[in-house]
Amino acid sequence: GEDVEQSLFLSVREGDSSVINCTYTDSSSTYLYWYKQEPGAGLQLLTYIFSNMDMKQDQRLTVLLNKKDKHLSLRIADTQTGDSAIYFCAETLDSWGKLQFGAGTQVVVTP
Amino acid sequence: DAGVIQSPRHEVTEMGQEVTLRCKPISGHNSLFWYRQTMMRGLELLIYFNNNVPIDDSGMPEDRFSAKMPNASFSTLKIQPSEPRDSAVYFCASSLDTPEAFFGQGTRLTVV
Fold first, then answer.
1. Nearest to B99 among A43, A48, A102 (CB)
2. Helix, strand, or coil here: B96?
3. Which residues sit opposite A10 in a β-bridge?
4. Do A83 and A76 touch, CB atoms closer than 8 A?
């Protein structure tokens, strides 16, 4: 089975907060990532967190890491229509850039 | 910097033909990765290079796939012969001794 799991779909109203969740299995992961993919485009690195951190905040984005439960979340504050995309959670394997991706969560922002 | 550049953006080819996908990493980056994205299998790492040397090709599906990196600014992924099940979006990514890997726009390959 997949080493990184995400829910497949999230619908959120414009202006609300979005929370996208992810679980991973490799306890030796050093970094965990969130990438964004818009239709027909490549993957844009949004943020990443080192495994010895609990939280990282970057403008509207907040990443929470619960290492004990192997749970990662991405909170987007004040969600906008431009945030509609697929969001991928990923963990490093044995080398930077060698990433294990989840299946992606499609986020749809409604007016 | 223009970012990671991949060409072509779209490729349609007939089964049995040879296909070559190209990637120019970000200048100065020393690691390069090839990923494949399909609906069924999601994003999979095919191969990665460090300082132009292939480090791990365990994700390459079979011998029909080969990748080269003749210099620090260019890499190719070749499929010969191509099959319909190779249809996917192929991404190249690069990084420089940091956790940040930057992806290209991808090549959408369709094998008919």
1. A48
2. coil
3. A107
4. yes
